[in-house]
Design a protein that fits this description.
2 domains; Arc Repressor Mutant, subunit A; mainly alpha
Length: about 190
């Protein structure tokens, strides 16, 4: 019966019935927020993603085609939107890492300074859990895609993306603290 109600709601939404959209929003917002939080572990992102996914239903109400049940469609959309947000965050961390790497290699002279950097990288990597280190090394140093890592380690791709996100977050924080301390010295 729930599926039939959802189909009716979607039909009313297609006819610009904002009340039907509000019912759909209230019915699925919490579940979509929970799906997003499961993968992102960030409540602010999860709330925004859930609202955005539902908002897209309203924006595309005239053209949207849902071939399976609406709940599955929305949960999949929330999961995919979460992965997109995580990918963007990973790109930011990678750009930061690249910038830091370039800055240090351009500014530093001599093998002892490079060894100091390598030591700090090892220390930073020690901040990660064993699983995060393993996934991060495969991704960053061996150019494995998350799907390949998931298959290799017998994990879900969502778990791999989540662990990469957590690893990047820890490393970013480690280097942020390290660089703020080194700037205070000079």
């Amino acid at each position: 019966m729930g599926q039939h109600v959802d189909e009716l709601l979607l039909e009313y939404i297609r006819q610009d019935d904002h009340k039907a959209f509000e019912v759909l929003f209230v019915k699925y917002y919490k579940e979509l927020r929970d799906v997003s939080f499961y993968y992102s572990n960030n409540s602010e992102d999860a709330e925004e993603i859930a609202a955005d996914v539902l908002h897209q239903i309203w924006q595309k109400r005239k053209d949207i085609v849902i071939e399976k049940n609406i709940r599955s469609y929305l949960c999949t959309a929330a999961r995919n939107a979460t992965f997109n947000v995580l990918r963007k965050k990973i790109l930011v961390v990678e750009e930061l890492s690249e910038h830091i790497e370039n800055e240090y290699y351009n500014d530093m002279a001599g093998a002892s300074q490079i060894k100091d950097i390598e030591l700090e990288i090892r220390r930073a990597m020690d901040q990660l859990t064993q699983r995060q280190r393993e996934i991060f090394r495969l991704y960053r140093f061996h150019d494995y895609a998350p799907a390949e890592i998931a298959q290799l380690l017998k994990l879900t791709e969502g778990t791999v993306n989540f662990q990469l996100h957590k690893a990047h977050k820890k490393l970013k924080e480690y280097f942020r603290v390290l660089f703020s301390q080194s700037r205070q010295i000079f």
